[in-house]
Model the fold of this input.
Amino acid sequence: MKYSFMSFSAPDASLAELVGLAARLGYDGIEPRIDAGHKHGVEVGISHDKCAEYKKIAADAGIGIACVATSCRFADDTVLLSNIEYAKQVLWLANELGAGCIRVFGGQLSDPDNRPDAIFRVASALRELSGVAGDVKICLETHDSWCDPANVAAVMELCGCDNVGVNWDIMHPVLTAHKSITESFAAIGKWVAHVHVHDGSRDSGKLEMLPIGSGKVDHKAALKCLLGSGYTGFISGEWINWNYPDHLAHELATLKRLEAELTL
Done:
């Protein structure tokens, strides 16, 4: 398995610092989150030369740019067109950087009672973007109004584009849609092209983020699904506002231990 982490883990780090941190701790990649005030410098609007500089920094260290994570969303028709146009700019950025994919959201439904209409809108947006995606895959995350993998699967079926896939955030279907890891993967596994991992619980009545193995999300089951499917993408940790020198090493060690237990 290839492991990466999102820039939420070290939002004040430059791109070079993120790459150095990944290399030092044994990660295989990094995932810059754009439009979040992070200091890595990877943002829409940077030049071709700056992209080439960032790409070389990562390549020289043997670190992949796993994904460019966005907030683009397509279910709400009031912001649909602007989000499509912005996503096109992100795709240019990701291609320049040599990133494997971009992460997008479905977003909140403009009409919560009309799921079929939202599925059509998101699928249509993704299909349009697929035509300008280049070498980058567009990955819809199991997130917000799309935590139920069945709804994401419906989008994938309708879209039908090889360069559109799923960013499986393994926590949200479990804690929000009450779907097990195996149920989730059964629904969307054939489209999974990027993975987000983190653990948590709602036992206190609100979402509490916890170290892997301390919450309600069965990471070993997720790794088993991915290993069994021949998954070759990145598994990216999304850890926000934690003490990164400690948690990045600890979480990676846990993931690698679970993987080793499955491959003995």
Remarks:
- The mean pLDDT is 97.
- The longest helix spans residues 244-262.
- The first strand starts at residue 2 and ends at 6.
- The chain has one domain: 2-262.
